[in-house]
Amino acid sequence: MTNRAWRLSAAALVSLVLAVGCGGRGGPKLATVRGNVTLGGKPLPQATVLFVPAEGRSSSGITDKNGRYELGYTTDRNGAVLGKHRVRISTYLRSNDEGKSVPESVPSRYNVESDLTREVIAGKNEINFELEAGGPIAQPSVDD
Known about the structure:
This protein is mostly beta strands.
């Protein structure tokens, strides 16, 4: 093998190692987060559950008809970064599948004025939210 061919082969090998080492599964350590959301004792369907860490990317999930959610970090990675998170839960949608807006049904203290915090630890986290009904509900303005 010539010197030039060896260098090209070595460069290709280094590039491959870097691509595999820094690709798809790179990034921060994540933990699985799932749970149930109820409002006034009833499952809360079609609610967005947002976990916002002090630093880094947020994770989110949408509840199913039974109020069950699982967080996603990116399109190909589930979970949330480890540490403390502020949590926001909302049913507001600017536009649903029919092109209509869906009004907020969750009190402000759980979304725009959220005081909910939860800690995500390594491994599997089951984090449930039993939200109390009642209280002010903020409807986003058209400009929000």
